[in-house]
Structures are given as structure tokens and as C-alpha cells.
Amino acid sequence: QRESTQKKTFTSWINSILAKHTPPYVISDLYTDIQQGHLLLDLLEVLSGQHLPREKGFNTFQCRSNIENALTFLKSRSLKLINIHVADIIEGKPSIVLGLIWTIIFHFHIEELARTLACTYNQPSLDCSSAVDSSPKASRSAHKSAKVKERWKMSATKALLLWAKEQCSLHSSIPVTDFKSSWRSGLPFLAIIQTLRPGLVDLEKAKGRSNKENLKEAFKIAELELNIPRLLEPEDVDIMNPDEKSIMTYVAQFLQYSRSLRESEEDVQEKVRDATSWLAAQEEKLAKLLVDTENETYYQKYKVSCILYLTASTKRNYINEWKVKLDQMLPSPLDSIEAWLQEVEHLQAEDLPDLQDPFKAMFALREMIVIFKHLIHQCLLYPMILSQLLEHFTVCRFSNIRFTNSNTFLEYHYGLCSALANEVMSKLNIWDMKYGTKESVESLLEDW
């Protein structure tokens, strides 16, 4: 029953996303429709806003290529696809397909929404706690990013649960402790609706109704009044042990709705006054820091300023929003370079396993090479930067894997790096300098 519920919920969620696709379309059988690869690519393009490479046909080779492109894209965003292989998706294996779709939902839907709550609830969000630091200590910590991301997954779940508790706490005697049996009565759904849109439900009347009646009303009101797609049915939730992933997917839509609500003018003015007051205080601290670090380098001044701002936990959400907007405001063509560099940083930060088997190490490296080559094909940077990246990748990244049979591994490593280096150099030889000289770019940045 859990598998059936997930298939229905995930299919409905996918259709709500594909409604934004051009042209929009719907799927009927997730296990069958995913086999061609076009569904995955369409879904990821809508969620990421990026154009992904694909084969237009539907033969076996083209379907496999499309699925590989989709998985490569997910890995480039540092997502771990454990035991998810192309062959299993082509066969439409239920457990593999559901696992892949849940990974996409959690990353693009739940994590993105919960990220805005992480600072509020003091969860260890990557955006909230990271700072620019090129020290050896920072380099070592970068290799632990995969573990940090795993902790962040738990934090995203906790942040979403805390948000749901907060909405329900405004209405007494409606406890929420998990994403399972707590929702069986339907009252938490109704309480959240009442908080977001007061007057739509009568909670006192609902307490005297059956679970199925409350669930039916909650799903109906959410669909008609809040325009939230109906991902669940009463019989999916009113059972002994409802599916946690399906309920999380549905509850996240209420959080998404709350993000789109227009704030009252009074609330906006209060936030403006609060932010202005905080900025004034930070300005005084920054002025003092500038005096204290007068004889330091500009980099040291910048680093100290970053630490000052990032330690202000109550305003981290403002800093994160401004940082994202600032990065997006880079003048063209540097805005595209910023997006490309983020993908490269994700790849470089991904931790590699300690593999004793050289053949398993080769397989792991082959996957990394596929991702790396994909990024090279997208690269719009200077040849000098690309060469530095290649050197870093071949020297630093491969040294993280330890092995016992060094001769076999080094022979493979040498051939692999030679082939990759030849491909890169051939590309460098025919590329034009798209952005002119180094001085022209420095001038562009200086004007900005």
C-alpha cells in the first residue's frame, strides 16, 4: 500500500510541475512514462530553469542517453543517487523509480522551501553558515560537504515539521509530532488552512467529525481555495501508518503557498524598520572593524566583515537573500559564469569514498569524469581558468581515493587523464576568446 500511495502522490506532484512546461502535459503511469527519459528531462528543466541536452528520438539508445543526461545533471548538483542505475529506470522498477522521484522532490521542492526556514529555526543550513575562506582548514572542511548535506536533509525535514507545528499551535489541542499518524485525523491540515486563510474552516465543528470527513474537507478546500493540487486521498492518510514521504510532499505545498501570500502593509513596514535598525547597528560594528583592521589587507577586512554578518543569526535570512540577488546582478556575460562556477564548486566539494578495490575506484572516477566532461562542454570561461580546473581535478580530486593495487589503478588513471587532457587541449586550440582580454574583464568588473 505504501508503494501504491507514493506512486499516486508522486505522479500528481509531477503533473503539477509539468503543467508549467511548454507545452504542458500529464502522465498517467509513472513507471512506464519515465522509461523514455524525456519525462525526467522535462521535469528537471522546469524545476531548475536550465536547458538540458537530450536525444529527440525514442529508441533504446536515445532513451538510455536521456536518462543518463538526467542522472548526470542530478549528480552535478551533488545529489547522491544510491543504487539508482539507468537499466533499472528503463525497466521501470518501482522501488528505483520511486526512490529517484523522492530524491528530486526532496531536493527541488522540500529543501528549497525549508531552506528559508532553516535560519528561523536555527537549523544548520549550508547557505546560512558558510563563509568564504581559503585556509587549509576550510579546504579540509569542504571535503566534508557530503556529510553536511546529509545533516541538512534531516534539518530540512525538521524545519518543515517545526513550521507545521507553528501553524497548528495557534489552535489548541492539535498536536503534530511527525509526518505520519499525527495527520490521520485531518485536523492539522484544517488548522494550517485556518492559519493561512482564516475563516475557511470551523475547527470546533471539525473536532466532532470523523477522520475521513475532515481529510476530505481539507483536501477539497486546499484545492479550491488555495489552488494546492490534491496529492492525497482520505484513505491514504486515515490508516495506522500513513506514508511519511507522501505527507511531507503534500504539506510542503502549504508552505509554498504561505511564501506566496502578500504581507500586509503594516507587516512590511515593521520588517523594514526592524531591518533598518539592525543595519544601523551593524554599520557601527563595521566602522569599528575598519578602524581595527586599518593596516590589514583588503581580503582580511572582507573576511572579518563576512564573519560579522554571518554570526548575526537572527538576520541570516536577509543576508542570504541579498547575497543571491547580488550574485544574480553580475553584468553579462559574468552572470552565466557565476552559474557555471556553482556547479563546478558542487563537484569539487563532493566527498569521495575510501575504496580499497581499485576497480570500484575506477568506476567511481568514471562517474566523476562524466560529470566533469559535461561541465567542460558547458564551459564559457577563459582557457586559463579551464586549465587550472583540469589541473586541480586531476591532481587533488583523484588523490582522495586510497587503494591497495596501485599499479592497476595508476595505469588506468594515466590513460584516463591523458585522454581527458587531449580532449581539453583540442578544445582550447579552437576556442575563441569570447570575452576579450583579461584587462577588458577587469574593466567590466570595475565598472560594475
Automatic annotation (TrEMBL):
<keyword id="KW-0009">Actin-binding</keyword>
<dbReference type="GO" id="GO:0019894">
    <property type="term" value="F:kinesin binding"/>
</dbReference>
<dbReference type="GO" id="GO:0007010">
    <property type="term" value="P:cytoskeleton organization"/>
</dbReference>
<protein>
    <submittedName>
        <fullName>SYNE2 protein</fullName>
    </submittedName>
</protein>
<dbReference type="GO" id="GO:0007097">
    <property type="term" value="P:nuclear migration"/>
</dbReference>
<dbReference type="InterPro" id="IPR001589">
    <property type="entry name" value="Actinin_actin-bd_CS"/>
</dbReference>
<dbReference type="GO" id="GO:0005635">
    <property type="term" value="C:nuclear envelope"/>
</dbReference>
<keyword id="KW-0677">Repeat</keyword>
<feature type="domain" description="Calponin-homology (CH)">
    <location>
        <begin position="4"/>
        <end position="109"/>
    </location>
</feature>
<dbReference type="GO" id="GO:0006997">
    <property type="term" value="P:nucleus organization"/>
</dbReference>
<dbReference type="InterPro" id="IPR036872">
    <property type="entry name" value="CH_dom_sf"/>
</dbReference>
<dbReference type="GO" id="GO:0003779">
    <property type="term" value="F:actin binding"/>
</dbReference>
<dbReference type="GO" id="GO:0048471">
    <property type="term" value="C:perinuclear region of cytoplasm"/>
</dbReference>
<feature type="domain" description="Calponin-homology (CH)">
    <location>
        <begin position="154"/>
        <end position="259"/>
    </location>
</feature>
<dbReference type="Pfam" id="PF00307">
    <property type="entry name" value="CH"/>
</dbReference>
<dbReference type="InterPro" id="IPR001715">
    <property type="entry name" value="CH_dom"/>
</dbReference>
